[in-house]
Amino acid sequence: MEVGGRTFKSVFAETMNERARILCSKVCCELRGFRGPMIDFGCGDGNVASQIQKDLGVKVTGYDVRRYVPDGLDVAFEKFDGTNIYVKDGCFMSGIMIGVTRSESETAVILRELSRVIKDGGRLVVIDTIPESKQEVSHELCFINDYVQNRLLYNVDLPAPGFYQSGREWLNQAKKVNFKMLSSVPGRHFLPTSSNKYAIFVFKRVP
Who's near 37: CB < 8 A, 6+ residues apart? Predict the structure, then answer.
């Protein structure tokens, strides 16, 4: 199949690279200056982690429940159960989590584990879907976009969670596990692979 004289595969690869470049720039703006190891919780294909590693000059370790990282990509990868990270406390200086929202209870467990492995003074950057409104139709549209991304673009063999939190809900969840919100950017359209709005939250690990 061709699109404008180019193969769909080449157009898709270019779009995914652009997505990774945009996400990398958002993360690097917040984490520049943090030179210690970084965790990418739910790293997917590892493309974002790879670009961050090059731009910031830090070692990034990606964690996911399946290996979507292609062979040859220069990113360390660990397969895990989606919650438990088997490293010592304070092993990472920073962390990122992009589009990994689960149920409220699961998100609380994930944040608690990230609080354990990120050292005091470290940073966590969360980029997540924010519905246009609290109306059910808004959540359904977000879910459809997430489903298309997971199943068609990334070929992820896991269900799209379909659970979304507001900025205040993220704040309340995070402060319970020693994460202080430093900044938040309201939901905006900035990814070429989705019409969803994404918000950016930056947290500091505090004692």
Answer: 58, 59, 60, 61, 91, 92, 93
What would the pLDDT profile of 69-117 be if each residue is shown by its tens digit? Answer: 888 899 999 999 989 999 999 999 999 999 887 666 788 999 999 999 9
Nearest 5°: phi and psi at 155? 55, 40
Question: Whose structure tokens read 């489903």?
Answer: 147
Q: Are 129 and 146 in contact (CB under 8 A)?
A: yes
Q: Is 133 left (phi over 0), alpha (psi -120 to 50) or beta?
A: beta
Q: Does the pTM of the predicted model rise above 0.85?
A: yes
Question: Domain residues for 161?
Answer: 2-205
Domain containing residue 109: CATH number: 3.40.50.150
Joined together, the tokens standing for residue 32 give 């520049």
Domain count along the chain:
1
Which of 88, 28, 71, 22 lies closest to 53 in space, CA to CA?
A: 28
Q: Which residues are CB-contacts of 197 (< 8 A; sequence separation ≥ 6)?
A: 129, 130, 131, 132, 187, 188, 189
| Model pLDDT for residues 163-193, shown as the tens digit of each residue | 778 888 899 999 999 999 999 988 788 877 6
